[in-house]
Prior knowledge:
- The chain is mostly helical.
- The protein is built from eleven helices and no strands.
- The chain is globular.
- The model has no long low-confidence stretch (mean pLDDT 90).
Amino acid sequence: QVAEEAFVESLIWRKPKAFSKDEKSTLKIINQNVIRTESGHNQLLNAFLSVSPIPNHPFNAERLFQHLSKFSMSKRDSWWSTFLHYQYGEKGAVDRLIEWGWSNQDKAHINDESIRLCAVALGWFLTTPNRFLRDRATKALVALLTNRLSVVLELLKQFKDVNDPYVAERLYAVAYGCSIRSRNDKKRLKALSKWVYDEIFKNGNPPVHIL
């Protein structure tokens, strides 16, 4: 137990380059030792969320996206959305990501890639049926991505085929919120608007529940 906890903690503190290029040994430890208990699994997910915004980290939000995308909606909800529901309010990585995204802290110095990775992680928070958590994650995304419309467009493209309507609905709401809040970015606003039109309206058959 102590060894597994120390291993998971090390995922957070290790430099991205301190991981072996061959991840098989790391994944073997995770699969055979860490996730065999609910507490270990929860600790691991908290660790992954903690490193999710770090560019070039082998377990950042891109890895999370690849993993979560593999599941059916019902299977993913059975463990991921449940994890989010019970972690919300516990002052762990779920709350920290939301609070940081929503904060008034100046983020202008943070590069687009780190912001995008944080947004990808927050995008997966939108799967939860917990309305309060989903609302806070939505608002955090709007605050985080205001004046970063190019990142909004990247996010929409990345989540385009995710099999959960909760996610699509909220990401388009985020795009709308960012569009009306962003200033002096007509070129990126035009690119975003055109993509949404082509994706949703051009074929004349938008989603039934579009409003």
